[in-house]
């Protein structure tokens, strides 16, 4: 027994001992003649090869279940020398701090799922719009109490509001996040926005971020953006189309490089192919341009909103009558202007889409959080939403989260080894089986 203990000091030895003990009878002698046999080097090399090949190959590989979220957090600023358009320009830090607390609580109760509601996955990558800077992003992360989320921030070009987009991710980013500063001439050829003045005759995307991740076997580029506001204004319409042209160029480049793509954010426009709860019709081609990036009549990206019933397709509230009251029985003040678009290959792995309507838009943010969950062990067999789900018109607005399909299983949390608990267990069983076979041959 003493020799047995000494020979089981490392994992491979421990596994070998277990395999040995499974056989009867077993004798352990001080000679260990098998070690000196001519087959010993081959056994050791084979064992190490099995262990090496069984481990995850990507240092950045995510677990097989990954959730990606977006939320416009409405002026997440620090209240210190804010621009005049900021709601905290007068009341300053006390008001900004309260808003930070509300946003942190909102994230915990929705996409971060710290209440463990219904077995939903915790978001692994969270895109946020209307963030002031990296310091505010770090303060938000500290309020969440989870240091596994890393702030990804690239300063934008919005000199009017000072707003930016940003990412909190517990999936390691490949390299550093970037942004595009390309510009597009406006109005675009064939634009239906009208003939108003185009101002500078060119536009860029002042608020955008581009980050790349390894998600299982796919390299995925996440393109986050916040486009020009006011969906029905002529000048804004022209500018958003120009911004969509810039982002479409980014998406085409990433696809040509072999990457899968997710475009998400406050796009400030409607999807004419997928009616929202209020039947809003776009005046621009923004969503069409971002889904069919090469303009060949075939969409490269899918809007995940199609997987929800029609009455649940809303992401923003506009206080049209100025009464500061959100009437959940009416669709008049709601719309879907935030979107998550995913490349067709990734869309095959979607198992859940959730728009979190439990947020109070009168006191937290005038937008609602949204998430999409992928299960990369689903075999790529997840189907597009059935027609019944895409066209459902039941009317009362839900006050709770809405999901397209129940998520399967549990877990899905980020691990430092880059694998889920299930994957780790499968790896252990695989190694144990291989060691048992080797031990049988040896003994």
Give a nutshell description of this structure.
It is built from 11 helices and 16 strands. It has 443 residues and is an alpha+beta fold.
Describe the structure.
The protein is globular and about 80 Å long. The longest helix is centred in the middle third of the chain and has 23 residues, at 234-256. Helices cover 28% and strands 20% of the residues. Residues 1-38, 40-61, 386-396 and 406-424 have low confidence and may be disordered. The strands form four sheets. It has a seven-stranded mixed sheet with strand order 3-4-2-1-15-14-16, covered by helices on one side. It has a five-stranded mixed sheet with strand order 7-8-9-13-10. It is built from eleven helices and 16 strands. 43% of the residues are buried. It has 443 residues and is an alpha+beta fold. β1 (65-76), α5 and β2 (125-131) form a beta-alpha-beta unit.
Order of helices and strands: HHHHEHEHEEEEEEHEHEEEEHEEHEH
Assembly level: single chain
Uncertain regions: pLDDT < 50 for 5+ in a row?
Answer: 1-38, 40-61, 386-396, 406-424
Radius of gyration, whole Å: 26 Å
Number of helices: 11
Mean pLDDT, all residues: 80
- Kindly state the number of beta strands: 16
- Structural class of the secondary elements? alpha+beta
Helix content: 25-40%
Shape by Cα distribution: globular
Strand content: 15-25%
Strand order of the largest sheet: 3-4-2-1-15-14-16
- For the report, how would you describe the main beta sheet? 7 strands, mixed
Distance between the termini: 18 Å
């Amino acid at each position: 027994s003493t020799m047995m203990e000494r020979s089981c000091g490392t994992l491979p030895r421990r596994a070998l001992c277990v395999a040995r003990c499974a056989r009867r009878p077993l004798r352990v002698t001080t000679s260990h003649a098998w070690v000196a046999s001519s087959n010993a080097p081959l056994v050791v090399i084979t064992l190490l090869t099995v262990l090496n090949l069984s481990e995850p190959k990507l240092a950045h590989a995510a677990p097989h279940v990954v959730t990606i979220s977006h939320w416009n957090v409405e002026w997440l600023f620090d209240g210190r020398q804010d621009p005049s358009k900021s709601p905290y320009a007068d009341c300053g830090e006390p008001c900004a701090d309260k808003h930070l607390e509300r946003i942190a609580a909102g994230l915990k109760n929705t996409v971060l799922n710290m209440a463990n509601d219904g077995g939903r996955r915790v978001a692994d990558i969270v895109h946020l719009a209307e963030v002031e800077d990296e310091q505010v992003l770090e303060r938000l992360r500290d309020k969440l109490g989870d240091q596994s989320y890393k702030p990804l921030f690239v300063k934008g070009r919005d000199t009017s509001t000072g707003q930016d987009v940003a990412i909190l991710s517990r999936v390691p980013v490949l390299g550093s996040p970037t942004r595009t500063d390309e510009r597009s001439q406006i109005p675009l050829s064939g634009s239906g926005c009208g003939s108003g003045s185009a101002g500078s005759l060119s536009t860029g995307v002042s608020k955008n971020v581009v980050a790349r991740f390894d998600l299982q076997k796919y390299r995925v580029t996440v393109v986050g953006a916040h486009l020009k506001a006011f969906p029905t204004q002529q000048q804004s319409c022209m500018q958003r189309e120009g911004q969509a042209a810039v982002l479409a160029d980014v998406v085409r480049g990433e696809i040509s490089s072999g990457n899968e793509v997710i475009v998400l954010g406050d796009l400030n426009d409607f999807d004419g192919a997928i009616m929202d709860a209020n039947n809003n019709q776009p005046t621009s081609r923004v969503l069409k341009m971002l889904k069919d990036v090469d303009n060949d009549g075939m969409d490269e990206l899918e809007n995940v909103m199609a997987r929800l019933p029609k009455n649940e397709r809303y992401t923003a509230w506009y206080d049209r009558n100025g009464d500061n009251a959100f009437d959940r029985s009416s669709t008049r003040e709601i719309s879907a202007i935030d979107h998550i678009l995913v490349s067709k290959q990734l869309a095959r792995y979607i198992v859940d889409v959730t728009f979190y309507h439990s947020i109070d838009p009168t006191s937290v943010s005038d937008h609602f959080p949204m998430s999409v969950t992928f299960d990369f062990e689903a075999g790529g067999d997840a189907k597009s939403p059935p027609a019944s789900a895409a066209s459902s018109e039941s009317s009362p607005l839900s006050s709770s989260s809405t999901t397209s399909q129940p998520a399967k299983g549990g877990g899905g949390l980020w691990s430092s080894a880059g694998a889920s608990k299930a994957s780790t267990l499968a790896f252990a069983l695989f190694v144990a089986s291989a060691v048992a076979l080797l031990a049988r041959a040896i003994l």
